[in-house]
Amino acid sequence: MTARGTRQGLDAEDLDVEEALALVKDGNGTGRPAGGHSPAAREDSGHGTPSAPSLSSSDRTPGSGHRGDAAEHRHRATSWPEARTIAARAARSGAARLAPVSVTLGDALGLVLAAPLTALTDLPSFDTSAMDGWAVAGPGPWHVRDEGVLAGSATPAPLADGEAVRIATGARIPPDTTAVLRSEHGRTDDNGRLHPTREMQHGQDIRPRGQECRSGDQLLRAGAVVTPAVLGLAAAAGYDTLAAVPRPRVEVLVLGDELLTEGRPHDGLIRDALGPMLPPWLRALGAEVVSVRRLGDDAKALHKAITASGADLIVTTGGTASGPVDHVHPILGRLDAELLVDGVQVRPGHPMLLARLKEDQHLVGLPGNPLAAVSGLLTLAEPLLRTLAARPAPEPYALPLRQAAHGHPYDTRLIPVVLRGDHAVPLHYNGPAMLRGIAAADALAVVPPGGARAGQETELLDLPWATAGIDACFT
Ligand SMILES: Nc1nc2c(c(=O)[nH]1)N[C@H]1C(S)=C(S)[C@@H](COP(=O)(O)OP(=O)(O)OC[C@H]3O[C@@H](n4cnc5c(N)ncnc54)[C@H](O)[C@@H]3O)O[C@H]1N2
Ligand code: MOO
After folding, report:
1. Does domain 79-97+247-388 have CATH number 3.40.120.10?
2. Rounded-to-integer distance, Cα 159 and Cα 302, Å
3. pLDDT digits (tens, 9 = 90+) for 277-302
4. Positive or negative CA dihedral for 213, 215, 216, 220?
5. Which residue intervals define the domain MoaB/Mog in the entry (predicted)?
6. CATH annotation of 3-76+394-468
7. CA of 373 to the centre of ligand 1 (A)
């Protein structure tokens, strides 16, 4: 590690917990192309502060003989915005579209309506009292009937002029009622006659039948997201089931012989971070995760799992690069898959890929480094799943950065940030193998090639739970 790298490590450890998780103390200025650092210094760049561009190993060593590979990769790699567009477009092709299903209200939350929500009844479906009090006929004083009218009761007898009846909010209005007098606005005299204590308007506090809608009115358009409020409206309007776009079915295949599913890392083995992280994140992106399988680095098992899968989307983790046990590319080749995206000009995560396996089945290959996998998830899986689920694209938004963020010379960088006031504050620990930054983040900042100055408006990708809360997005 360079002196700079060591210094940054100490800086980070010297911060108190809040600061260490939150704020970048940077000013390093190492956003320069390869050549100025030893590879060891560049690897994770001192606790992953945004000080150095995450150049791939072949980029790092000019004249090492790998230069051609890097240039070739960059040539093939898709720009970050284009990769997202391609992923969304892949889901739009006719065969990929998911046929609408009929789901009970209990299962519809978060889905998108496949048909307009049309009222099956007038709302309210009968003239109803808006208040507790008396239904009255004509101007007061009134003679009050003995029996009152409660919500849910059958049609009450008509009122004669000068007559009143006790009525509850939501109860049917007796025929010939002219107004409802609120209980706090009526006084009964010694003879038991009811007097108004305020001036009254004709029809006051009566909700007439059809005030909100008539049977057949369109309440919501196809494409509306089913929120809790939509469930309430649908029930009120007479629905038991809804026609909705189903959640895309996703199968996760976790690759890597080095992965442990419990205990502490030991003997060169590490914990699988993606198995626990991806399923709930995919659900928050609208997917139904049908299975999570750990396949090790077994090419045959991977081939079999892909060919046997009936999922709309297969997500693999690891094995995207060109190491001896990186099987994803060779197997996609054997399967004659169409590589729609083969590498993206983004850091971390540039080896990510998107392939069409069948007309209605895609595969997103996430790199194994955990933050690189997050990058792939948001770059390729998010637009694909969102489009398959017919969800609306989030409105793009930007905030100024509190501190400068060093960019990669050619590629987009995604950097975890917290939102403080009207600024985005870049976080430490944003190296490709690190989750410490993203675990404390509210969003990812999209830093353009060349970096962003302090105060520069920077596009943000929200993390679903940061805005909606943890329960709202994992239904
Ligand atoms: N010669 C090159 N080597 C590498 C390049 C390159 O361009 N040329 N790119 C590097 C980058 S950038 C990334 S990212 C990785 C992508 O690697 P793979 O997708 O093939 O992933 P693996 O090699 O299987 O794993 C990489 C790294 O991540 C760890 N890992 C894998 N799965 C998990 C998991 N489920 N939970 C936690 N950690 C995981 C794995 O142990 C490795 O440390 O390639 C670079 N190499
Ligand atoms: O930096 Mo790699 O791009 O870790 O994914």
Report:
1. no
2. 77
3. 999 999 999 999 999 999 999 999 99
4. positive
5. 251-387
6. 2.40.340.10
7. 9
